[in-house]
Amino acid sequence: MHDKTHLVDQITGHRRMRRNRKADWTRRLVQENHLTVNDLIWPIFLVPGKGIIDPIPAMPGVNRMSVDKAVEAVKQAADLGIPAIATFPNIEMEKRDQTGSAILDANNLLNEATAAFKKHVPNIGVITDVALDPFTSHGHDGILRGDIIVNDETVDQVVRAAVMQADAGSDIIAPSEMMDGRIGAIRRGLDAAGHQDVGIMSYATKFSSGYYGPYREAISTSGLLKGDKNSYYINPANGTEALRDATLDVEEGADMLMVKPGLPYIDICWRMKEAFGLPVFAYQVSGEYSQIKAAGMNGWIDEQRVMMETLLCFKRAGCDGILTYFAIEVAKKLAKG
Ligand SMILES: NCc1[nH]cc(CCC(=O)O)c1CC(=O)O
């Protein structure tokens, strides 16, 4: 018997957390959260034309694709077991105008792509955005009158666009433009058009964030945008206001909720899951992706490790899934085990 009492023994007594961490098998046994391919939604960028795979400089590894190439890529995503994609179009400049009228073209790039995916890759879900920013000459998500983004007029247009997107085959409408009353209006519009089965994933809490920079390069809105989006996106300082906004979306009929950006707003993910019990998704946005890529490419962090870690953290925070530009890479990694 040795009588040498370490100070630590007096403090911990019988409580030793490291027993469960001592071996790979104990760690696997007690792991609380897991990331699977079923958690992934893959956002993709579309361009007009044929045979185009155009790298986005600010997002290494991410391309803008013409519809034919996107069909091939989406087939690969489906084969890997990814449940859904989310599409964002880079519309020709000459088609952009003050009101984003090209969103009401039934055959616009977005709708053309949806129809192609539904035809050639029927077993993957297609999620489409109804924000006007890819279609406006000023890069704002709504209709600009003077220097005001007009709410109700924008909602009317968004509803018409949502019905057209559903007509083209979209499975879930994901409105990201943060106008008031849009979820209820879209729900009524879809139902009136016979699209009762088309869901709504609300970008319920979309913050006015600097993390969207690379995305704006990807769809060529960065050079257009005058001012900021502070009059419709949420102030990054406000968590309770975000919950209130999401509450309205739930009352108006949202089927799923989204938090955007992801990691810096992970407290909101948790609060939303606790508050509503609805499926909650995080959007690991372009700036989050590019940060990880850039640091990885410089050898400053282990990119693969941080990629997997961040996505697992979303699961721990209560998310049901993540929109991530890493989706294909992650799905391949998970398939290898
Ligand atoms: N409706 C706008 C929209 N749709 C998708 C993103 C960002 C996605 C990303 O950064 O990955 C944004 C934000 C913006 O440009 O203000």
Question: What is the tally of beta strands?
Answer: 12
In CATH, the homologous superfamily goes by the name Aldolase class I
What's the alpha carbon Rg, rounded to whole Å?
A: 22 Å
The whole-number mean of residue pLDDT values reads 96
Q: Architecture, according to CATH?
A: Alpha-Beta Barrel
Helix content: 25-40%
Give a short account of the largest sheet.
8 strands, parallel, barrel
Order of strands in the sheet with the most strands? 1-4-5-8-9-10-11-12
Query: How many domain units?
Result: 1
CATH uppermost class: Alpha Beta
Shape field: globular
Q: What is bound: which ligands?
A: ligand PBG
Q: Proportion of β residues?
A: 15-25%
Termini separation comes to 47 Å
Spell out the helices and strands N to C: HHEEEHEHEEEHEHEHHEHEHHEH
**Structural class of the helices, strands and pairings?**
alpha/beta
The CATH topology label is TIM Barrel
Pathway: Porphyrin-containing compound metabolism; protoporphyrin-IX biosynthesis; coproporphyrinogen-III from 5-aminolevulinate: step 1/4
EC number: 4.2.1.24
Family: Belongs to the ALAD family.
Catalytic activity: 2 5-aminolevulinate = porphobilinogen + 2 H2O + H(+)
